[in-house]
Structures are given as structure tokens and as C-alpha cells.
């Protein structure tokens, strides 16, 4: 199944590269913030936050932003790898085509809107409920 044109894939690829580059810069900047040396040891600190309820609010906000950035970056890198494959733009759940407009707005999208909503409904409380 290959419904996106080469031009559409290349346009998406350019957006992915631009967005990924901006995210890398943001993450690098956040990690290098002066006076915020804890984020230099991000992995250690993330482990601490789970046990330490009094984690500094500002630092934990920064780390949440970095985590979101890294998650998006991973999604973008996955999209980049799939970009010219036959499965790109096809919903992983229902195998329907994901509209080009949705892909442009959500470069790492791997599901159609209906399946994404279903996924979020069924997985929404997993993190909070897994303690
Ligand atoms: Zn779907």
C-alpha cells in the first residue's frame, strides 16, 4: 500500500528534519542550562524523581519538557526511517491510510485519528495506575 506521492514524502521528510533539528537544539540547550547541573545527570535524576516527592519543581518541569522532547524526537526518527517504506502513512492498528494533513500536523503519527483516540482512551491511565 503506497498512497503518498514521492513529493508528499519528501515534504514530510523536510518537515521531520527541521523539527528534529529544532528539538535536538532545545534539548541540548536545556541540558546545558547554567545553574541546572542536575539535568547533566538526567538519567540519575529521573530515577530520583520517582522516589523523591520534594524534587525541585523547576527542575522537574525542565525534565518533563526534556522527556517530551526526547519522546517526540524518537517518534520523528522512527517516521524518518519508515518514510519511504510501504507502511509509512498507514495506521498501525486498522491499516487505513492516515490523511496527509494529519501526518503534516503530527509528523510522528502512526495511527489514524480514530485509532489514536481509542489508544489514548485505553492507555490513558496506565502510568498513573501502575504504581
Ligand atoms: Zn486506524
Low-confidence stretches: none
Number of domains: 1
**How would a textbook summarize the main sheet?**
none
Distance between the termini: 41 Å
Which secondary-structure class do the elements indicate? mainly alpha
Strand content: under 5%
CATH homology superfamily name: DksA, coiled-coil domain
Bound molecules: zinc ion
CATH class equals Mainly Alpha
What percent of the residues sit in helical stretches (DSSP H or I)? Answer: 55-70%
User: Mean pLDDT score, rounded?
Assistant: 82
How many strand elements? 0
Brief overview:
The protein is an all-alpha fold. It is built from six helices and no strands.
Structure, explained:
This protein has 131 residues and is an all-alpha fold. It has one domain: Four Helix Bundle (Hemerythrin (Met), subunit A) (Up-down Bundle), CATH 1.20.120.910. Helix content is 63%, strand content 0%. The chain contains 6 helices and no strands. α1 packs antiparallel against α3. The longest helix has 26 residues.
Keywords:
Four Helix Bundle (Hemerythrin (Met), subunit A); single chain; about 130 residues; binds zinc ion; mainly alpha; about 65% helix
Secondary-structure blueprint:
Layout: H1 6-31, H2 42-51, H3 57-82, H4 100-105, H5 113-123, H6 126-129
Helix pairs in contact: 1-3
Amino acid at each position: 500500500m503506497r498512497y503518498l506521492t514521492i513529493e508528499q514524502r519528501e515534504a514530510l521528510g523536510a518537515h521531520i528534519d527541521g523539527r528534529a533539528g529544532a528539538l535536538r537544539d532545545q534539548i541540548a540547550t536545556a541540558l546545558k542550562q547554567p545553574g541546572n547541573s542536575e539535568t547533566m545527570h538526567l538519567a540519575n535524576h529521573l530515577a530520583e524523581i520517582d522516589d523523591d516527592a520534594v524534587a525541585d519543581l523547576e527542575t522537574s518541569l525542565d525534565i518533563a519538557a526534556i522527556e517530551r522532547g526526547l519522546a517526540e524526537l524518537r517518534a520523528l526518527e522512527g517516521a524518518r526511517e519508515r518514510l519511504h517504506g510501504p507502511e509509512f502513512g498507514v495506521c498501525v492498528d486498522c491499516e487505513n491510510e492516515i490523511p496527509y494533513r494529519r501526518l503534516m500536523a503530527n509528523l510522528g503519527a502512526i495511527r489514524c485519528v480514530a485509532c489514536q483516540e481509542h489508544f489514548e482512551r485505553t492507555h490513558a491511565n496506565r502510568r498513573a495506575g501502575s504504581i
